[in-house]
Amino acid sequence: KSNIGHTQAAAGVLGVIKMVLSLQHELLPKTLHAERPSGKIEWEGSGLSLLQEARSWPRSPSRVRRAGVSSFGISGTNAHVVLEEAPARSLVSSSETDGVAVGEEATARPSLPLLVSGRDEAALRAQAGRYADWLSRHPEVDWSAVVSTAALHRTHFASRASVSARDATEAVEVLRALGEGRSHAAVSQAEARDRGRVVFVFPGQGSQWTSMGRTLLSESPVFAETIAACEVALGRYTDWSLTAVLRGDEGIEASLLERVDVIQPALFAMNVGLAAVWRSLGLEPSAVVGHSQGEIAAAVVAGILSLEDGARVVALRSQLLRRLSGRGAMAVTELSAAVVEERLKAAEWSDLSLAVVNTPGSTVVSGSSEAVERWVRLVDGEGVFCRQVSVDYASHSAEMDPILPELERALSDLAPRAGDVPMVSTVTGGRCEGRSLDGAYWYRN
User: Fold this and answer.
1) Count of domains observed in the chain
2) Which of 119, 172, 210, 329 has an alpha carbon 20 to 30 Å from 193's alpha carbon atom?
3) Is-contact 200 301, C-beta < 8 A?
C-alpha cells in the first residue's frame, strides 16, 4: 500500500505482483512512510526488519530466494502465498551456436512452442498439415521467427495445440503426427476456455478519497476530457468546481469534501470517467451494475441516460439528501437478510430498515441515529461484526420519505432510452429495461 496505494479487493494480488518483480529485478523497494517502526514489536533479535531503504536482493547459487505475501480482509478472509524464485536457466543465442556441430547445436538450442489452432479439431489438423508441408520446403527458416509470428500475428481459434521443437526440421515430424491425429510427446492439445465477459460495477458512496482524480486528470487525456464534460453537465446544478475537488486543490474547504451533495456528484464523474478510460483501452462491458447512487453512472455508461440527465439525477438526489444530514445513520452487519428482517420485527427496532443486502451474509441497516447506535452495541456485543457507516443520514429507509415526492416531481420529465448495454438493477435484483429508469425508478433507488 505504501508504494502504490490501497487497491482494495486487488491488494493481495498486487502484493504478489510486487514480489515477483522484486525477484526479477533482484531488488526490494523501500517501504514508504515507515520512518518510525512500531514500538510494540521487539525488532532486536527477532530476525525481522522494515525496508526503510531499498535493498539489493541478488540471486545466489547457494541460497533460494523466497517471499511471503499476506492478504487479510476486513471481513475475515485470510490468505498467505509463499513465492520462490524460478530455477536459473541459460539462453543460447544463435551467435553462441555458430560453428557447433549439428548434433551439438540441436541439443543446445531450446525448444520453442509453435501455436496451432482451428475452429474445430478437423481444422486444427489441416492447419498442422499445412505447417508441416511449408516447413519441409523451408528447413532453413528462422524457427524463432515462425514461432513468434504464429503466437502474435495469427488468430487463435477454439481448438488449439502447442508443438514443441528446436527447429523447423524437428517440427515437421511433430506437426505430421498432429495432422494425422497421432499422439506425440511434443504436442499439447486442448480446447480454449470461454474468456468470459466483462461487467462494469459502479460503487456507491464510501469509495471516495481526497484528490482521487489528480493523477488521471494529469496523465489520461480521455479521463480529463470526460471530466470536463461532466463538469459542464453538473455545473447547471452546482456552485463548486468538480475538477478542483477531484484534484484536491489547495484552498478547497475540508467541509466541502464531507458534503453529500459534493461527494456523490464527484463519485458519479469518477465512475463515468473511469469507464471512458477502460473503453479507450478496448475493454467493453457486456453488462453494467451499480450500487445505490452508482446506478446513475451505470445508466449513463449503458446509454440509458444521457450524461446531462445523469448529472441532473445525481445532483438533485444528493442536494435533497443534504437536507436530511444529521438526522440518521447506517450500519453494516455480518448477518443475513432473513435474520435481520426477523429481528427488525421487534417493536424496539421500529425506527430501523433493512437498507442494503450486500452478500448472503452481509447487510446494512438504516434509520434514526439513536436506533442504529443501539443496534451496533447489541450486535457487536453478541460477537457479530457490526459497525456504523461513515454517513450522517439514513439512506434507503423510511427516513427518506420527506424528500421522495420532490425528487419524483423534479425528475418527472426524465427521458431514459433503451440503452445499448444490459443493466442489472440493484433495486429489483433483475435485468432492467432501459426506459423503466424514469423518475419513479430513481424514487425507488
Assistant:
1) 4
2) 172
3) yes
